[in-house]
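A.,

Following up on our hallway conversation. Structure tokens first:
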């Protein structure tokens, strides 16, 4: 079971139910599924494919959730970047993971200033939020122009899905590999322990760069209602 399948199941069960509530933005499960598919198609059009590294330099916004699910549909790996770190540390993370695409809030793009100028990822920075002019890759336009024929890529439980950096308390931060199976069963455990149901509202507490999957998935999945894990 992967995240793309979880999203599709939630859409089938509760298409018009609210999936995301963020300030004045509200998205249903149907809209989340559609937008994440378009995002996956847009990333594919940029040259990202199964196994690609997609870095997310975002706060807890709808774009974060959409991009996260999109990476699952593409078979790509998510690399959450901590926007509170120094540009030199962020640059090292990008270089070490071999990033292929970065989706970043416009205000955080300057944090990429120390990524080597020759690095391929600098040609594929997708900017979210307010941008000056209409230059480069802009999130809204990219989704509008995404191909309509994208089909989710198949993955299994052992397929790596995201690289979560450790704190580096005893050395440099290291990227820990997390698979689709890891995320699914971690979520099942949390949902069962907390007794979550489809009509509960889950408040996302973690920063976007710390275990983003836990918050995202707990808000989208309940074994009792969707039959997962039985």
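Then the amino acids I'd put at each of the 230 positions:
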């Amino acid at each position: 079971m992967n995240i793309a399948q979880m999203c599709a199941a939630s859409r089938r069960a509760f298409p018009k139910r609210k999936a995301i509530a963020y300030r004045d933005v509200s998205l249903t499960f149907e809209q989340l599924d559609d937008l994440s598919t378009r995002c996956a198609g847009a990333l594919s059009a940029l040259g990202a494919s199964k196994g690609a590294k997609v870095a997310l330099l975002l706060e807890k916004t709808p774009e974060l959730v959409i991009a996260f699910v999109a990476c699952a549909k593409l078979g790509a790996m998510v690399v959450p970047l901590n926007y509170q770190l120094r540009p030199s540390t962020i640059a090292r993370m990008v270089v070490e993971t071999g990033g292929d695409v970065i989706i970043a809030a416009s205000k955080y793009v300057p944090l990429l200033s120390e990524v080597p100028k020759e690095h391929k990822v600098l040609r594929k920075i997708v900017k979210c939020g307010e941008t000056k002019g209409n230059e480069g890759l802009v999130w809204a336009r990219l989704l509008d122009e995404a191909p309509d024929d994208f089909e989710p890529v198949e993955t299994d439980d052992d397929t790596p899905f995201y690289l979560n950096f450790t704190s580096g308390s005893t050395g440099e931060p290291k990227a820990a590999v997390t698979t689709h199976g890891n995320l699914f069963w971690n979520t099942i455990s949390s949902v069962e322990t907390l007794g979550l149901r489809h009509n509960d509202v889950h408040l996302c507490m973690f920063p976007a760069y710390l275990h983003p999957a836990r918050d995202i998935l707990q808000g989208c999945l309940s074994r009792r209602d969707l039959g997962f894990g039985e």
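The chain has a mean pLDDT of 85. Curious whether your intuition agrees with the design.

B.
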